[in-house]
Amino acid sequence: MHEQIRKRCLDLGELVQETGLTVRAVAKKSGYSKSTVHKDLTERLKLVNEPLAKEVSEILAYHKSIRHIRGGEATKQMWKKKVVQPEKTP
């Protein structure tokens, strides 16, 4: 594995470990695509640092287990923001 990829995997893994961010949030913060971040955290990190990969895997599993709740909450917030204006009658 190329040294630059190894370093990126470690950096992303440490970011998740320290902050508990989701893959999407890590991708946005780091500037890499979600696909790259996901592959680095789920596949490549195991080859670089197994203990860190295990911790990151647990964090990602937690995010996966609550994603249906977050999705519902996002929809709820979206509908709260939409204010329906009643039609004015002349």
Care to give the gist of this entry?
The chain is mainly α and 90 residues long.
Low-confidence stretches: none
Order of helices and strands: HHHH
CA(first)-CA(last) distance: 71 Å
Shape: elongated
Oligomer: single chain
Beta content: under 5%
Q: Treating each run of at least 4 consecutive H or I residues as one helix, how many helices? A: 4
Count all strands and give the number: 0
Rg of Cα set: 19 Å
Class by alpha and beta content = mainly alpha
- Whole-number average pLDDT? 89
Number of domains: 1
Q: Main beta sheet: strand number and arrangement?
A: none
User: Helicity range of the residues?
Assistant: over 70%
Could you explain the architecture of this structure?
Helices cover 80% and strands 0% of the residues. With 90 residues, it is an all-alpha fold. It has one domain. Helix 1 crosses helix 3, helix 1 crosses helix 4 and helix 2 crosses helix 3. The radius of gyration is 19 Å and the shape is elongated.
Helices and strands in order:
Blueprint: H1 3-19, H2 23-30, H3 34-48, H4 50-81
Helix pairs in contact: 1-3, 1-4, 2-3, 3-4
Descriptive key words:
90 residues; 0% strand; elongated
